[in-house]
Amino acid sequence: VRYAERLARTRARMEELGVDVLCCSVGPDLPYLTGYEAMPLERLTMLVVARDEPAVLVVPRLEAPRVEPQPDVFSIEPWDETDDPVDRVATLARGAHTIAIGDQTWARFVLALQERLPSARFTSATEVLGPLRAVKGPDEIERLRAAAEAVDAIAVAMREQRFHGRTELDVQRELNERILEAGHERVNFAIVASGPNAASPHHDAIDRVIEVGDVVLCDFGGTMHRYCSDITRMFVVGEPAPEVRDAYDALCAAQDAAVRAATVGTPCEEVDAVARGVLREAQLADWFVHRTGHGIGLDAHEDPYMVAGNTTPLVAGHAFSVEPGVYLPGRFGLRLEDIVVASDDGPVRLNHAPRDLAIVD
Ligand code: ZN
Ligand code: ZN
Ligand code: ZN
């Protein structure tokens, strides 16, 4: 990764937006710029990028050994237990009119900085870095592809597994194990929602026993070599009810149309509108209660979002999910999700696991 190049692009964007200092702490902005991921500790880690000064990483001394030095990108300033790191950051940011600060920075530190720098205006670092992080380079797309292939293999393997008589928690445990076995360094989530539970899009698995006729939604992903996977596939124990089959056919058509619409130059909101339009024709749009997709990369959810109101045109390298769903309260829920990359040759799906309703035992 060419961190120096990323930093140069970041500075150009700071200039464009009139941001004097960028502060990145916990979360993916820091590894994007430095390769170093801060543990979400109560101790402050902060990369301070002033527009015309060398970047400085203020880091607890005990964490410093984990930082891989990049002398052409930033210098390292370890602080000791009795030092005040906020004071150090405030000194580095002194005189700044506008400070962009990472979304996941602990409020404690933001409040302390605001107190020390009363004349500065604080904005979100996502304004600076969101659009940069959203456009993936070839190396990043390769990592997303590898992560997608890993969860594809799990989705395929699950088609041969027994669901009947198991609890959601038991299936979730299996998914968690498989995600790690497949080479992810961490599990981000494994939603297993059976029967009426799937009508809640982010249902948290419980001890409900999966019965014959149940539709089971599995939405899972992790982080592999820093990049995220995210896939949703549907399973049904025995023959699906005709209403399930019909709704799923409409959902597949909606997802397919939305993926095909995701060409370079198309506004993100159009991808959402296309999925919604297909579901509207099937009288299911009222039950599609969330946006069509989210960007994916170092973070499981990041720019760009496929949602009404986001007029950002897709550019080559945008990576995002296309995941329409249909949620019928008290009855069942369905979702189908793939990761897609916009390219000059058209939309490219990174997930290839079969998309049909998998009939399982
Ligand atoms: Zn979700
Ligand atoms: Zn998902
Ligand atoms: Zn997703």
Brief characterization of the structure:
The chain is of the alpha+beta class and 361 residues long. The protein has helices at residues 3-17, 29-34, 85-92, 107-116, 125-134, 138-158, 168-181, 242-261, 268-281; strands at residues 21-24, 46-50, 55-60, 74-79, 98-101, 121-124, 186-194, 215-224, 227-228, 231-237, 293-295, 302-306, 319-322, 325-328, 332-335, 338-341, 348-349, 358-360.
Structural class: alpha+beta
Order of helices and strands: HEHEEEHEHEHHHEEEEHHEEEEEEEE
Summed up, the helix count is 9
Main beta sheet strand tally, sense and closure: 6 strands, mixed
The Rg value, from CA coordinates, equals 22 Å
- Spatially, the strands of the biggest sheet line up as 4-3-2-1-5-6
Bound molecules: zinc ion
- What value does the average pLDDT take? 97
Which runs of at least 5 residues are low in confidence (pLDDT < 50)?
Answer: none
Q: For this entry, what is the oligomeric state of its chains? A: single chain
- Total beta strands: 18
Proportion of helical residues = 25-40%
The rounded distance between the terminal residues' Cα atoms is: 45 Å
Shape: elongated
Strand content: 15-25%
